[in-house]
Amino acid sequence: xxxxxxxxxxxxxxxxxxxxxxxxxxxxxxxxxxxxxxxxxxxxxxxxxxxxxxxxxxxxxxxxxxxxxxxxxxxxxxxxxxxxxxxxxxxxxxxxxxxxxxxxxxxxxxx
Length: 111
Known about the structure:
- The chain is α/β, with parallel strands linked by helices.
- 23% of the residues lie in helices and 12% in strands.
- It is built from two helices and five strands, in the order ββαβββα.
- The strands form two sheets. The chain has a three-stranded parallel beta sheet with strand order 1-2-3, with helices on one face.
- α1 runs parallel beside α2.
């Protein structure tokens, strides 16, 4: 996986700044892209929609104080991310006949 975070601050702080960036710029960078940088429950949907990542990561925006996670913020973030991945899942899904599109193969479950 490749993790892409917001650029570091001028003071050299590499992460945990709470800053976001244009997530669309990293779309397609890797099939296992993990997006980070200023994510919380309020904007994870937009990040998933724009970057279509394999995963998301958040840190400072889920804290109540430096180094202390807020359990409510974490719960809301995870809940929003899970819902958003369902909405913007770029993987094909089979139709009612089990086919992946008009030229797709048919899903055969393992025995």
